[in-house]
Amino acid sequence: MSIAGNLQKIKQGLPEGVIIVAVSKRKPAEAILEAYETGHRIFGENRVQELVEKQPLLPGDIQWHMVGHLQSNKVKFIAPFVDTIQSVDSFKLLKTIDREASKAGRIISCLLQIHIAREEHKFGFSETEVSDMVQSEEFRELSGVRVAGLMGMATFTGNMEQVRSEFNNLRRIYEELKENVFSGEEGFSELSMGMSGDYTVAVEEGSTMIRVGTLIFGPRNY
Ligand SMILES: *Cc1c(COP(=O)(O)O)cnc(C)c1O
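^ thats the input. predicted complex w/ pyridoxal-5'-phosphate below
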């Protein structure tokens, strides 16, 4: 099937309002344009260098989401144009984004990445860490970032009950923060969870944003 057909098929199966981030890493600008031409505008990349190379080749109204681990010293390269950074996994990184956004005269949407998987190598805050951060004075003073919600990746496994319970846990953390810390703030509204292999489970568990690469663009060559 074509990229347009793949996107269409995924959209048709989703509940109203769930956002698709088309993860275009390791795919050429032409593939992104093919999706763009169907009206799709939200694309995700996981490496700064690749994002910085592709962005000038593509239409200016694309909303670029950074979804991969980000080093603080590289934030400055994407701050002038990135729409959302989904992979905020430390307070240090969030403060750097805040500073670089202010320098660029922008406000950058951020999602806080929570470590929900059993795998050690995955990045993200623990529940306690995120809770401490968002209740701190320093956090409330940030003005160059808009913390729009949470992001998480489940364990890479075929055990869908485990995946479901990890997503369910993330949903609970999200709801608790929404109620106790961001109460009354409309801006805290996104729960980014679900990829090609597990997005249907993620959506059943309350995802508002899925990040899909392979199912749209086909397998990646590494
Ligand atoms: C690559 C990637 C995805 C998309 O993965 P697929 O399995 O190809 O859909 C989603 N989220 C993150 C953080 C990624 O790095």
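The mean pLDDT is 96.
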